[in-house]
Write a structure and sequence with these properties.
Layout (H helix, E strand, L loop, with lengths): L2 E10 L3 E7 L1 H6 L5 E5 L7 E9 L4 E7 L3 H7 L6 E2 L1 E6 L10 E7 L2 H14 L3 E8 L8 H5 L4 E6 L6 E2 L2 H11 L3 E7 L2 H11 L5 E5 L15 E4 L2 E4 H4 L2 E3 L5 H7 L4 H15 L1
Parallel strand pairs: 8-9, 8-12, 9-10, 10-11, 12-13
Antiparallel strand pairs: 1-2, 1-6, 2-5, 3-4, 3-7, 4-5, 13-16, 14-15
Helix pairs in contact: 5-6
């Protein structure tokens, strides 16, 4: 008995998709920042995906994934009504959320989906949430409608200026921090270069900065060691000690190198998948 896909929606055709999965037990316990491990077929690899949303009443979880390797390409072949054999969670440490005032949640790429769940948690805690999302162009933006439904402020930045501020999301973040001294925390989820840039912007202002290192996780239970990272001079494992850490303490140089550790193997696996599935 697997986990049925109740809804599938392509957010960016051929690149990014959203799944709503029937998983009552996970939906009941999942908190912002948690992730799940899924296995698309019985001999497939385990892949971690951050929970983008939950619906306890209907017993569903929402995940968003970028089609980037064999396992996500295989996942993309499934349709509504199909079942995923294994979905394990919620895993990882949930986001620390308390009522603290103004919180800026910054998202980029598929990280916007995970940021959405965190922003919703801060909103429910009574915080004033400023959502800042960035992408190369308007067509690559995610969850803007969803964030706009509960965030009192939604700020958009695109590299090409097709929507919102023309430039990086860190540009508007810096301006906001210069003008608004009430910001108590900045949360950033997205590509590693973006999170590193956010941490550099916030450091001079002394604003607490939380980043999610979910992009380097592999097995999700701390056994493979692939998600080792250095935080504050100490070795941490993103999947069991995080995935969220103090952005000012993360060794981003080491993190960037780790992102490419398995690139040759991933490319070979993807090539074999394409030969079999066209």
């Amino acid at each position: 008995m697997g986990y049925k896909i109740l809804q599938k929606r392509q957010l960016i055709p051929g690149q990014t998709s959203l799944l709503v999965i029937d998983a009552p037990q996970i939906a009941k316990k999942a908190r912002p920042g948690n992730f799940v491990i899924i296995r698309v077929w019985e001999k497939g690899e385990r892949i971690p995906l951050t929970i983008a949303d939950t619906d306890k009443d209907n017993g569903t979880i929402t995940i968003v994934y970028l089609v980037v390797g064999k396992s996500t390409a295989h996942l993309e072949t499934l349709s509504e009504g199909d079942e995923i054999p294994d979905v394990c969670g919620p895993l990882g440490k949930a986001t620390h959320i308390d009522k603290q005032g103004t919180v800026i949640c910054v998202g980029g790429g598929t990280g916007i989906a995970a940021m959405h769940h965190i922003a919703k948690g801060h909103n429910r805690a009574g915080n004033h949430v400023v959502a800042m999302v960035g992408a190369r162009s308007e067509s690559l933006l995610l969850f803007c409608d969803e964030l706009g439904s509960f965030c009192p402020e939604l700020v958009i930045a695109t590299d090409d200026g097709s929507l919102g501020h023309k430039g990086f999301v860190t540009d508007v973040l810096k301006v906001r921090l210069e003008e608004d001294k009430t910001v108590s925390e900045v949360v950033a989820v997205g590509p590693v270069p973006m999170m590193e840039a956010v941490a550099k912007v916030t450091r001079p202002f002394g604003v607490k900065t939380t980043v999610s290192l979910n992009s380097i996780m592999v097995d999700g239970i701390g056994m493979c060691g692939a998600c080792r990272c250095t935080v504050g001079g100490e070795v941490k494992f993103a999947c069991v000690d995080g995935p969220e850490f103090d952005g000012h303490q993360v060794d981003f140089g080491e993190l960037r190198k780790r992102l490419f550790t398995f690139r040759p193997q991933e490319q070979l696996s993807m090539e074999e998948f394409r030969k079999r599935h066209g």
